[in-house]
Give the backbone structure.
Amino acid sequence: MEESNALVNRNKTYVIHTEVLEMVFEVAFTVLRMGDIKDPLLPHSLKILTKHSKLVNLEIVLDLIQSLSDMMEDLPFHSMLQASLCTFNMLQGRGRAIEYDLQKFYCVLYQRMREILEQKDLDSLLIEVLNSMLLESRNLAKTRITSYVKRLLLLSLECNPTLADGLLKTVMLLYARFQKWLPDLLEGQPLAGGLFSNEDNNPDLPNPLVDVCWALPKLKRCFDKQDDLTVAMLENAKANVA
């Protein structure tokens, strides 16, 4: 009798949780479909959709991705990262079988990546988004990957050491995944003609293979200087204490 009651209670709980989740999705999706980037509920809706994105019904995945794609360029940086993460999580969940052109998401992130230098407490979110878009996605073009590697390396020269460490780990994982492509960037001489355009905001166009990764040794020197500065500061602190 007790086991039967427990089973009934579990079933009721499951039904209630499902209904609550459906209502939450409906509210969040309605806020998103309204398209008002200044809506104070939008960041919370994106956070909810991102957290439960792998549970979104397959029927609304395409509509949701299209809505996010239309808003990407105008969203605040934090919301843009949440929208990107939500999209790629959905495509790794129930939307795995869906074929969708994600160029808009790659272009916007590639274009706006340097905004992280003006933000606080978003380092880990940026790394999570990059890993989802570059490491967990399928069918990525060689030019797109190499362009992102170049931009990540250049960004790592400007950001704080914690974020730089995360960016370099992502680059290292990209080298491990795309072993046939990326080692060409470590050659002493460019493998193609033309010029690399770091100002181009489309990762499929800047011709990255004509430019070697000079940022790697320069970054090492920057960290060496940072280490020397840290040692000097510690020595001064010990002297003051004594």
Summary: The two ends are 74 Å apart (CA to CA). The chain has nine helices and no strands. Residues 26 and 206 are 41 Å apart (CA to CA). Residues 115-242 form one domain.
